[in-house]
Amino acid sequence: MRSIILIIIIAFSVFFLKEITKVSALTITVTANVPGCGNNVIDAGEQCDGINLGGSSCLSRGFASGSLSCTSICTFNTSICNIFPPVINNGGGGGGGGGNNNAPSSIPNTNVVFTGRAYPKSTVTLLKDAQVVAMTVADTDANFQVTISGLSSGSYIFSVYSEDSKGIRSSFLTFPLSVTEGVTTKVGGIFIAPTITTDKSEVKQGDNLAIFGQSTPSSEVTVSINSENELFVKKTTDANGTYLINFDTSQLEMGQHSAKSKAALGGDISSFGKVVGFTVGAKNVIKELTEKVVSKADINNDNKVNLVDFSITAYWYKRPNPPKSADINGDGKVDLVDFSIMAFNWTG
Amino acid sequence: MNIFLKTLILSVILLCIPVASYASEISFDSKGNQFTLGEEFIISMQVDTQGQSINAIEGSINFPIDLVDIKEVRDGNSVVNFWLEKPDISKPGVIRFAGITPGGFSGARNALFSIVLRATGEGNGIIYGTDLQSLLSDGMGTSTPIKNESLPIVVSSKGTLDGFKPKFIFPDTEMPEDFTPIITSDPGIFNGKYFLVFSTQDKSSGVNYYKVREGRFGFFVEAKSPYLLRNQSLSQKIYVKAVDKNGNEKVETLEPQNKQTLYQNYVIFAIILTVIIFILFIKKIWLKYIK
Prior knowledge:
The complex is a heterodimer of chains A (348) and B (291). Chain A has 3 helices and 21 strands. With 348 residues, chain A is mainly β. Chain A is globular and about 100 Å long. Chain B has 291 residues and is mostly beta strands. Chain B is 15% helix and 43% strand. In chain B, the strands form 4 sheets. In chain B, strands 2, 4, 6, 7, 9, 10 and 12 form a 7-stranded mixed β-sheet that branches. In chain B, strands 5-8-3-1-11 form a 5-stranded mixed β-sheet, with no helix packed on it. A 4-stranded antiparallel β-sheet of chain B has the order 16-15-18-19, with no helix packed on it. The longest helix of chain B is centred in the C-terminal third of the chain and has 29 residues, at 262-290. Chain B is elongated and about 80 Å long. The chains are: A mainly beta (348), B mainly beta (291). Chains A and B meet through helix 1, strand 9, helix 2 and helix 3 of A and strand 4, strand 7, strand 9 and helix 2 of B.
């Protein structure tokens, strides 16, 4: 009996000691919140806000390379910026010299730097092997730069997309890339295709159809309209990168049509972007501008198509009686076709 | 029959033969096709999209099992991001695979996976694909035919199966890449219970398997994404381990979403204490009994 009492006392002592230690180990975190900070808009007194770096980068802050981010009190976080260039650049440049002769002897980082054009002040999302690795905000001229570090050497598939001021998503731009250890790879000249939408889902033959979207400011947008003979209309974007074409549908036959657009600026040219469909019929049907399209591939309705949706659908792959939500094309089974549609609508 | 009529008939016959147009092509890249008994060799599967953008691919690769033994499948540098069926031996002499690449891929030499084989029997045979299908990245999953190149192989008796040493040693000291497991729930699976999703890459040898451990004192169990969590109260740490084919490990930890309350700790303590008292009680009775 004495041994039982002894065990109970020891057990209670150990337990309470553990609880006391837990309490004393508690940490109180104080978070400083600046009014307006955290809304992704750079207000007065803020250097940056969330993912909005106002076009700044490690380079523009006087560093040689790295990834600039924003702190919770809306000041720049340069902790991942590098003072010394980590680049062992075999080609290009030549000469140059100067600069730092006291370069560090440590193994240089394996980086990839992406630069290109999107839409003014738009959010640009970078995916590495289909998972989001970085987001940045393009400057007022639609230029963006993203650097990612700490990669292993090997083959990667990088993708980039953006969202215009109305929340319309661009098409994916994909770059297969072989990364070499200790070398900074630069991917320049990325030109994200313009966004496109229409004001009507059905237009009365002979009435005007507004075709509009966003691209780089002062770029020449070419809209291709699918009909018996493909029609091309050109328009220069304004200072905000927006374009609007009032298209006379008397040139089109009755039935289903589609339009897509590409942009050109200073010798650079984008690929054609997403395709928007419309009908030429007997009446006008105004299109709701809820273009934050909730894709059928967004299984869990979180406005993203990513690993979670893939995993839910993969659970039903080749299983009988899948739920309607997982059967993306509604053919009663979950097979490779459903996953192809999901891969097309992927956002990461 | 004059020559004109012959030419006409031949032309009509040729026109009637359906000409397949291929949107992509799978090829077998190997250093030669003549091997000696006991020799190890690698075949790299590559996809040429013929200018199209493809985002899904599936099929089976068949091997003459009387000539070769499949030693290993490596998918570290694959163009496929997510496997639905990770390339693996589905039945003797057959490797089955299915996967997707969000955003799609195009180009002439896209690595799919590579296979390490060992010649185990003499003779001639063919390595070939079946049920091959690729889907266009067009938002509709349009199927396109795949031209399937076969690889004839010859195994001669010059070598020997005795004293065999593996020829291919893959130097891989890097662990799989960082990843973020996600806890989620959906009415579509596991009756709406919480589950875990995870995926990462290993650019050298490829991820071999994952293991999940729930709680500090739990045990790692082999797991596939999506993984149904046992601790539905989400009150314990979760550890997800990715292990590559060379045994390098990467462990990611998820903090408990709902920390255990003091009350729950007391309950656990009370249970442990009851068990201890019960054991001691039984022991006492047993000691009395044997006396």
